[in-house]
Amino acid sequence: MERRELFSFLSSSIKNKKDDVEQELIIRPPYYNDIDAFGRECQNCDGLCATSCQEQIIIITEDKTPILDLSKSGCTYCDDCANVCESGVLSKENKKLIDAEVFIDQTSCMSWDGVMCFSCKDPCLEDAIEFKAMFMPTIDQERCTSCGFCISRCPSFAIKLKDKNV
Ligand code: SF4
Ligand code: SF4
Ligand code: SF4
């Protein structure tokens, strides 16, 4: 898939609703503390963070800033992207969780429809996905690190991302 097509796909598949207006949910890599620094500094960089990411979840968009694509893998919080960022946009001193909430869409989840499925449970190292009597999974937001590793494991695409502040 071409980069332009991929960004278009991400933009359309990861959206949130706020005030009845659909807005793109742009998820930045962890380790930043100034959101405006991406627009200021990344223009002068060859996307070092993206090339350093072994999980290949960082994509450099057309405006030359990095976003996360959690549709195929997740973030190990390995620090590599922060270590290579020469301009300090990403820095280990700013270490924090990915700024998005991961949740299970009950209308899409097979388990909420009475089908036994634990596909999302195994990849979660934080044991943040809780089942009630083997069904009806929900994500414990106190434990979830928003790493995203559960997202691609769901056969019904029921694990989604939303803005933490909505
Ligand atoms: S390494 Fe730093 S400056 Fe370069 S694209 Fe990534 S965040 Fe921007
Ligand atoms: S912390 Fe590691 S896995 Fe996560 S985005 Fe940065 S380089 Fe990729
Ligand atoms: S995003 Fe949250 S629930 Fe999913 S694997 Fe990571 S910690 Fe677990």
Report the helical percentage: 10-25%
Distance between the termini: 31 Å
The molecules bound to the chains, other than polymers, are: iron/sulfur cluster
Shape: elongated
Strand content: 15-25%
> Number of helix segments?
4
Number of strands: 8
Structural class: alpha+beta
How is the biggest beta sheet arranged? 2 strands, antiparallel
Order of helices and strands: HEEHHEEHEEEE
Description of the structure:
By secondary structure, the protein is α+β, with helices and mostly antiparallel strands. It contains four helices and eight strands, in the order αββααββαββββ. The N terminus is likely disordered. One iron/sulfur cluster binds next to α3.
Brief rundown of the structure:
By secondary structure, this protein is α+β, with helices and mostly antiparallel strands. The protein has helices spanning 3-13, 36-41, 48-52, 80-84; strands at 15-18, 21-24, 58-60, 66-68, 101-104, 129-132, 135-139, 159-162.
List keywords for this structure.
166 residues; alpha+beta; two-stranded antiparallel sheet; elongated; disordered N terminus; binds iron/sulfur cluster
List the helices and strands and how they pair.
Layout: H1 3-13, E1 15-18, E2 21-24, H2 36-41, H3 48-52, E3 58-60, E4 66-68, H4 80-84, E5 101-104, E6 129-132, E7 135-139, E8 159-162
Antiparallel strand pairs: 1-2, 3-4, 5-8, 6-7
Residues 29-30, 52-53, 55, 57-58, 75-81 line the site of one iron/sulfur cluster.
